[in-house]
Fold this protein.
Amino acid sequence: MATLTNVTFGGTAWIPQFVQSINQTKCIGCGRCFKACGRDVLALKALNDEGEWVEDEDDEEIERKVMTIANRDKCIGCEACSRVCPKNCYTHESLN
């Protein structure tokens, strides 16, 4: 299988690393990664105290919010999300 390699503007070879998972136990829901990603890959979702997903409208049930991968196919492999994550929640992989 061929390696997907890109080149930066300066000519440096670069292998994209695509988002694979987010450690939701470590995630504090700060939203930094969401702001860094302009590709609509991520979504902030709410959890209740039992760890079940709840709709944002149910504010009284929300225990905390965590980031999720909403559109993995839109990831371009830039790793901007993980570079700004204060808790190192992201796992990335190349297409190899």
Remarks:
- Residues 35 and 95 are 25 Å apart (CA to CA).
